[in-house]
Amino acid sequence: MSKVAIIRCESYEYDAVKKSMERGISLLGGISQFAQKGENILLKPNILIGDVPKKCVTTNPAVFKAVAEILINTGANVSYGDSPAIGSTLKAAKKTGLAQVADELNIKLADFKTGVDVFFDKGIQNRKFTIAKAVFDNDTVISLPKLKTHGLEKFTGAIKNQFGCVPGVLKGEFHLKLPSADDFAKMLVDLNNFIRPKLYIMDGIYAMEGNGPRGGTPKKMNILVFSSDPVALDATICRLINVNPENVPTTKYGMQTGMGSFLEEDIELIGDDFKSFFTKDFKINRRPVKSYKPGFFSDFMNNRLVSKPHIDAEKCVRCGVCVNMCPANPKAVFFKDDDKSIVPVYNYDNCIRCFCCQEMCPESAIQLKTPILRKILKIF
After folding, report:
1. Cα 96 to the chain's mean position, in Å?
2. pLDDT (tens digit, 0 to 9) for every residue of the chain, 380 residues total?
3. Got the DSSP string for 292-324?
4. Half-sphere exposure (CA, 13 Å, Cβ side) for 288?
5. CA dihedral for 119, 123, 126, 131, sign (positive or negative)
6. How far is residue 231's CA from residue 239's CA, in Å, rounded to a whole number?
7. In whole angstroms, how far apart are CA 39 and each of 32, 48, 132, 164?
8. CA-to-CA distance for 215 and 149, rounded, in angstroms?
9. How far does CA 248 lie from the centroid of its chain?
10. CA distance 194 to 116
11. Residues in Cβ contact with 126 at an 8 Å cutoff, skipping those fewer than 6 apart
């Protein structure tokens, strides 16, 4: 049976976070279960992009500092990093406040730029990966995900956090190769099964609801969540925000591969009362994921049933991030006649529904719209 510790923490005030962090780890058996003196430990926060902490896009510096201090006190050698979607790890870490904490604690920045090719014979979707050298330079990975919504996979949590171990532009190649949300989730599960973090600590003191993982709205949830089972952790969060775990592809396929279990009878909840955190009105798409499937007939159905990105002209600042991030060839979103003074437009026939444009828009100007036919039929 998998243990998931749910610990109340009502602010990012450091002493409160440190106390909650120590309590959560203690309930799982203590830090000695996950780190030893002399071990090289990689902390993997969520650094999607360089945004300030108050936007709740990334793992909060107070959470990062609390777990780092606990590890350092064991005598472990701690490093940290992630591969953001845009820009260098260091620049993004400075903007998020993580680099300042790392400097204070003398934690080195790990190598997330150099890729190492590996073969994973147990993969169900992907057996070949290029993974950041940082993973191989360390004995153990401890994952620090952020509780957020996600356009493609509905929810980003413990399992998806390891996608940041794929260096830079290679992430876009996966979106192009695996446009289906189900296939993409299987790849994420394979990646997680290869890396195998020892411990997952989710920052949900403030979460992100709505148009995540970058353009959503901060939501006070008052929780830190701990587990060595990422499926159980993500499933527990799903239930807290009133989502069926089976409707989240990463959770569903994570259980199918034996990574963990999302079944309530297989999960022992410890710590604070689960019911006290239940948030029925958390803004998230609760319908099962409808995957994009390429092909002539499939394209016809995709445009009528699969959600599509839509730009709000009043919010758009014409920065071009959506155009730059689109992995499709030819691009699905572009400046018409190369005129960057006007709002970009879509050719949905080229759109693979990866939602990279929506994910990275700095102004939350791109929303996912459900097609009218799907609303009428109410089949997904």
Report:
1. 16
2. 999 999 999 999 999 999 999 999 999 999 999 999 999 999 999 999 999 999 999 999 999 999 999 999 999 999 999 999 999 999 999 999 999 999 999 999 999 999 999 999 999 999 999 999 999 999 999 999 999 999 999 999 999 999 999 998 889 899 989 989 999 999 999 999 999 999 999 999 999 999 999 999 999 999 999 999 999 999 999 999 999 999 999 999 999 999 999 999 999 999 999 999 999 999 999 988 876 666 544 555 555 567 899 999 999 999 999 999 999 999 999 999 999 999 999 999 899 999 999 999 999 999 998 766 555 555 44
3. ---SHHHHHHHHHHS-EEEE-TTT-----HHHH
4. 8
5. negative
6. 12
7. 11, 27, 19, 22
8. 10
9. 13
10. 13
11. 120, 186, 187, 190, 191
Separation CA 62–CA 71 (nearest Å) = 14
Q: Which domains does the chain have, with CATH numbers?
A: 2-277 (3.40.50.11440), 296-377 (3.30.70.20)
